[in-house]
Amino acid sequence: MNLPLFISKRYFFSKKKKNFINIIAIISMLVVSIGTAALIIVLSVFNGMEGLLRSIYGTFDAPLQVLPSEGKSFIYTTDLKDKIISIDGILDITEVIEDNALIRYSDAQMIVKIKGVSDNFIAQGRMENAIRQGELKFQDGNTSYAIIGRGIQFNLGVSLRNDFLALQFFYPKNTKPGTLDPYKHYNRANIMPGGVFALEQQYDDNYVFVPLAFTEKLFDYKDKRTSLELMVDPDKDLLTIQAGLAEQLGRDFMVLNSDQQHADLYKVLKIEKLFVFIIFSMIVGIASINIFFSLSMLVIEKKPDISSLFAMGASKKLIRKIFLMEGAIIAFIGAGSGLVLGFSISWLQQTYGLVSMGVASSVTQAYPVEIIGTDFLFTAFTIIFITFVASIQPAIMASRQGIQRV
């Protein structure tokens, strides 16, 4: 029989009397439980947000993107194309010209990110589920069309039913000093709005998709491209393809996978998650002061019992173990019940979406939640460690009581 555990259980679960010390211990256990549950829920929400962003970008962004290592554009040659196609697993190449431009519609105007893409972009089906109004098309006969974000449509008041009002784009030209004609300082091109997409706020408020030829004319790019988006065979290993392509293209180009294309965003999410974990751990640490006081008061109350145990030959190590076990009971019950509570709430939200985000969203109506096992492992370890540390000093104090004859 484990004597320290037996005695500590008798102290904690005693039914003979429920004094003030027991009440403090129960409160301490409840605080640990609530803090643990809150930490699990918040971490699961962060996991859900990261997973939601990955799903959004994963269905829209190309698996691989080729960018110039220096500058914002490069010459797209047949030799470069052949190098890319030669890599096993590359299925398709989308040429991209992307830059900022001024857009005007009626009396409203704003700066947007205009992205010109080659004709195969639509065939890849990367925006099929994002179209909310109009059609997903860049060309109909001799008329070119733009696909605009829902935020841009709202800010400019764009109407797809108005066949007489086009989107006007303006882009600065590299003119010689001393040019007095203001029209020679910028390029201007018009295009009709053909559809509205709703994907994610960053895209919805800033992006306009147009045919590649339109941006070649507007930006005077000709054979230059700002990036290449590559579709790959899903049955092939993406990292292997990426490594082979990077070796083939050399130092003049960067090859980014879908995570690396949004590395800063994912990094911010991980940092926020880390700080939330630290803050909630500190809150539980402050709450564990109750454990320290309850055990300290228990030591004072049990002085006669401690003296009796010493008289019967108990060692200081045994006395320390008794009160460490008392703290461990509070820690394990509090952390265990908190983990179960946090898992239950997270699972209900993940399964049934009980809590709504409170805003109309084309992506999800409920707060996204994703349960990850490592969160439970680190949370349990941290909470138990904090409560164990809070139990050390009262246990040492108990072992120093000395032997008192009763």
Features:
14 helices; two-stranded antiparallel sheet; alpha+beta; 51% helix; elongated; six-stranded mixed β-barrel
SSE map:
Elements: H1 3-12, H2 20-60, E1 64-68, E2 74-75, H3 78-85, E3 90-105, E4 108-117, H4 120-123, E5 131-134, E6 139-140, E7 143-149, H5 150-156, E8 167-172, E9 186-197, H6 201-204, E10 207-211, H7 212-219, E11 224-225, E12 227-232, H8 238-249, E13 253-257, H9 258-261, H10 263-287, H11 289-301, H12 303-311, H13 316-352, H14 373-399
Parallel strand pairs: 4-10, 7-9
Antiparallel strand pairs: 1-12, 1-13, 2-11, 3-4, 3-8, 3-12, 5-9, 6-7, 7-10, 8-9
Helix pairs in contact: 1-13, 2-10, 2-11, 2-13, 2-14, 10-14, 11-14, 13-14
Notes on the protein architecture:
Belongs to the ABC-4 integral membrane protein family. LolC/E subfamily. By secondary structure, the chain is an alpha+beta fold. It folds into 2 domains: 3-58 and 265-399, no CATH class; 62-258, no CATH class. It has helices at residues 3-12, 20-60, 78-85, 120-123, 150-156, 201-204, 212-219, 238-249, 258-261, 263-287, 289-301, 303-311, 316-352, 373-399; strands at 64-68, 74-75, 90-105, 108-117, 131-134, 139-140, 143-149, 167-172, 186-197, 207-211, 224-225, 227-232, 253-257. Helix 2 runs antiparallel to helix 11 (289-301), helix 11 (289-301) packs parallel to helix 14 (373-399) and helix 13 (316-352) runs antiparallel to helix 14 (373-399). The protein starts with a helix and ends in a 7-residue tail after the last helix. The mean pLDDT is 88.
